[in-house]
Amino acid sequence: MxxxxxxxxxxxxxxLWAGLVFTIPLTLLSFAFGLVLGLLTAVGRLFGPKPVxxxxxxxxxxIRGTPLLVQLFVIFYGLPSIGILLDAFPAALIxxxxxxxxxxxxxxxAVISSVPRGQWEAAYSIGMSWRQAMSRTIxxxxxxxxxxxxxxxxxxxxxxxxxxxxxxxxxxxQAAQRIVATTYEPLILYIEAALIYLALSSVLSALxxxxxxxxxxxxxxxxxxx
Length: 226
What we know:
By secondary structure, this protein is an all-alpha fold. The protein has a single domain, classed as Orthogonal Bundle (MetI-like fold), CATH 1.10.3720.10. 84% of the residues lie in helices and 0% in strands. The chain contains eight helices and no strands. It has helices at residues 3-47, 50-64, 68-78, 88-114, 117-125, 130-160, 172-183, 186-225. The N and C termini lie far apart (64 Å).
């Protein structure tokens, strides 16, 4: 058996375990919390009072204008200087959530704005409140449009979690770094880590295509019934 193959086989369980225990939970939690934050931010910018809209714009401006790695360093290494101590995983979760929240808010804001004004008027004409119109009429239509860009954001997040290794989160990439430190085989092990990320991204891309087709059929049914 070739040396490189044996090395990859020996390292695979550790890499998969790190991905299962840290990378996947970090991705799912960050994306879920980020979507909630993004929705609140988008609604605040579109419909909130001026102070709320200004705060939302400032938040998006800061997060989108600075590198994600710097944001993680500020949270994990910077906040302790003012007495705020966070473990590595919560710090990474906060950093990724804030980042996803800013980027997803722009997507959500755009798709909500793309819903024709007549949909609002139709909802109000049958006695819906603003909250009912948003949840029953606007968001279902906006969701169909938002699926492709939000899916791309999720796939990018899977790969971006490798940055958490820089703040000592023992996720997939840091697991590869630790094995490299003992085997001195960076090329083989980093390629193996890259292949795992590639496999995850490929599976998610296939799921994205199916999800888009499903929402496309749903949208076609809505248009046919309109």
